[in-house]
Every structure is written in structure tokens, then in C-alpha cells.
Design goal:
single chain, 192 residues, mainly alpha, 9 helices
């Protein structure tokens, strides 16, 4: 029994420690959803789980192969939020004054998943050695805790995204704020 509790505690700490930045991204996505309807809350949840599944699959495969994914390749994933953010900033600049609303940078399941993978790319380097050291039972516990952690993170982002003041700011200036947040996450997760 101690092994299960130890694995769960390790997983909770590892999840929280490697996904603090994801709270900011989820909050911004939920703010955008509330302000513009894009992406929908459902798309955010599905995209978050899909993106995290990709990260876990990469970590598991790397652990099974006993070969860590080179950091130089993981760093390229940071280009995803940079491209999304830059695209949003360019579009906002083009449409400024035209009365168009272009707050959404990630506007569907795949773009939310892409942002999740990009923001969490550095997680693979943490998860791989841990997954390699775990047995099948402990790995199942870790994955269960991670699934619960994703739900908790989505709930926290949705709750933080309900602030009326923050929603009003996003409605007024979201075409600049949201792309800037996505572009700024690239700095930490890429080679640029």
C-alpha cells in the first residue's frame, strides 16, 4: 500500500511542479472563451487532455526506449505558441480599427492541444526518467493522478477565467494580450 501512496504523492508533486505555467495559459483560454466564445470550454478541456496525452506518450516511449528525447527537439515545440501568438498579433494589427474581434489565438481542440504540448514540452525531460524507474502498477497510479491533475487545472483555469474585471480587459484588449501570452511561453520552451 505504501507504494501506491508514495507514487500518488510523487505524481501530484511532479504534476504541480511541471505545470504551473499551464494555469496561466488555461486561464487565458477560459477568459477568451468567456469573452468571445472561442475556444469553447469543451474544446479547452479536450485539447488539454489531448495535448497532455501526447506529452505522456512521448515520455513513456522515451522511457521504454531508455533514450531521452533530445532537448533541442523539444525546444522546437515552443514555436507552436510563438507562431499562434505572432499570428494573433499580426491579425490584431491588421484589423485594429475595423471593429473586428480577433481575441482567439487558439480556437479549437487541435490548437489548444498544440499549445498544451508546447507549454509542457519541458515536462518530457522530467517524466521520462521517472516513468523508466516505475513499475506498471505505479505508472498506472501516476497516470491516474495526472488525469485528476488536468481536471483540477482546467477547473482552476475556468474559475480564474470567470473574473468580471479580467473578462472586461480581455474583451477590450484581448486581441493584444492573448497572443502576447502565447508568444511569451515560447521563450521558456524553445531554442529562440
Amino acid at each position: 500500500m505504501d507504494g501506491i501512496f508514495e507514487a500518488a504523492a510523487t505524481a501530484a508533486g511532479m504534476f504541480a511542479g511541471t505545470n504551473i505555467d499551464d494555469i496561466l495559459v488555461l486561464t487565458v483560454l477560459f477568459l477568451a472563451s468567456r469573452a468571445t466564445g472561442r475556444p469553447t470550454g469543451r474544446q479547452i478541456w479536450i485539447g488539454q487532455y489531448l495535448g497532455f496525452a501526447v506529452l505522456l506518450a512521448l515520455s513513456t516511449v522515451a522511457a521504454l526506449m531508455l533514450v531521452a528525447v533530445p532537448d533541442r527537439w523539444l525546444g522546437l515545440l515552443g514555436l507552436v505558441p510563438l507562431v499562434l501568438g505572432m499570428r494573433g498579433l499580426v491579425t490584431a494589427a491588421r484589423e485594429e480599427g475595423a471593429g473586428k474581434d480577433n481575441t482567439a489565438v487558439a480556437d479549437g481542440v487541435l490548437s489548444v492541444a498544440g499549445v498544451t504540448v508546447a507549454v509542457g514540452a519541458d515536462n518530457v525531460s522530467v517524466y521520462t526518467p521517472v516513468f523508466h524507474a516505475l513499475g506498471v502498477g505505479s505508472l498506472a497510479v501516476v497516470l491516474t493522478v495526472f488525469a485528476a491533475g488536468i481536471a483540477l487545472w482546467c477547473l482552476a483555469g475556468a474559475w480564474l477565467g470567470t473574473s468580471r474585471t479580467a473578462t472586461a480587459v480581455v474583451q477590450r484588449h484581448g486581441q493584444w494580450i492573448i497572443p502576447a501570452v502565447f508568444a511569451s511561453t515560447a521563450q521558456r520552451n524553445s531554442l529562440i
